[in-house]
């Protein structure tokens, strides 16, 4: 899943501090797939979840499930709607974006690389939607970098995580990469650990480039950059913690250029400072989540 850097440059409408509306974990499949709702009612619900308050929108993953047939249509429609409401939309994939269902036509699952290409093609169909999977966008002296940042799951928790976390049943990778015969297998912790290393290597490299050019950095990931404070307090000390967050305190301590890091995945909203970096999440979660501090009209400045 490694790709070369593509650097896009944007110009803000107004000078001064940049405003970003940050949302994640919308899980639009639970709304768009509601059979009792009309398209107008679905659009009303989506519009109520995101009330534009800034020129730039960041979608920090788990927006929908484009790997299923209705999910692809919903995902495309949703991005088109947000494209029309914001100057620019910055998108990364969460783990749920890579969930797939078996096709009644081919009898196979869409694999993670195939879904990545699908998301890219959908994003590329809108002129102001930027898919930040190991990509960067420059706005003045602010470098925006993104990656899913799969978590670095502890080896002693590998079997437990694979048994308990749905990713390791719902995400598929090619059984024989490069083969002309379609076949796949469920992803493993060994796979996602490799993806984590690729993602982290990319982020570190981009931070170094920013520092060399006296640029500030905004990092967008799905998985959290630190453990403490990024999940609901009831999950403190959980054996599954490393499936949801990373321990990148050393990176933050060594990288003063990183001014803001936004994330999702944990269904827990937070706004805190770690080694002079603002760490922020505005996560909607499922409609039946027990509590949420999600704000539909808030923004951050940098």
From TrEMBL:
Q: Which residues form the signal peptide?
A: none
Q: Where is the Calcineurin-like phosphoesterase domain?
A: 19-268
Q: Where are the transmembrane segments?
A: none
| One Gene Ontology MF term | hydrolase activity
Q: Which SUPFAM superfamilies does the UniProt entry name for this protein?
A: Metallo-dependent phosphatases
Q: Which PANTHER family match?
A: SER/THR PROTEIN PHOSPHATASE SUPERFAMILY (AFU_ORTHOLOGUE AFUA_1G14840) (PTHR37844), SER_THR PROTEIN PHOSPHATASE SUPERFAMILY (AFU_ORTHOLOGUE AFUA_1G14840) (PTHR37844:SF2)
Q: What is this protein called?
A: Calcineurin-like phosphoesterase domain-containing protein
Naturally occurring in which organism (per UniProt) = Plasmodiophora brassicae (Clubroot disease agent)
